[in-house]
Write a structure and sequence with these properties.
The chain is an alpha+beta fold. It has seven helices and four strands; from the N terminus they run ααααβααβββα. The chain has a four-stranded mixed beta sheet, with helices on one face. The longest helix has 12 residues. The chain binds FE2/S2 (inorganic) cluster. The site of FE2/S2 (inorganic) cluster has 12 residues, from α5.
Amino acid sequence: MSETVKPFSDSVAEYIRACRVKPHPESYLISVLQKVQTEQGYLSRESMDEVSQMMQVPVSQVTGVATFYHFFQFKPKGRHTVTVCMGTACFVRGAGKVLEKLSEVLKIQVGETTPDGEFSIEQARCLGACAMAPIVVVDGRVYGNVQPPDVVRILEEHGLKS
Ligand code: FES
């Protein structure tokens, strides 16, 4: 299935063109892909093809760089991102059970998005709020001392239909 991809903004296209004329354009691939991901939310196959053509670098090299680094994403995120902290403090205070409950309610795993495009689940290391462990963050809103029975209420605040 082919995806509809927004064209790059003028500033991203200009950045790519500027990189292409530098001595080793391929050495700018990480920063180019970061800009594309920031703008589009993820790296689609089409956008990586476009980067390859614009930079005149083989597509295999573009995808090789993109898949090597864990911070690149290849699927669009949901409207709401639910991040569970799995750092040590959160983990020992039950973050694993919270994550299990989230997966059970949304029927997806970490890194996935619900089929309706509403929710994505991510995990993080330490979010810097260990005193309130375990921590869940939804669209930037921080929930502390979260226990599995709290999960549905939190999701409902962000539009989950019961
Ligand atoms: S370990 Fe979760 S906030 Fe620090």
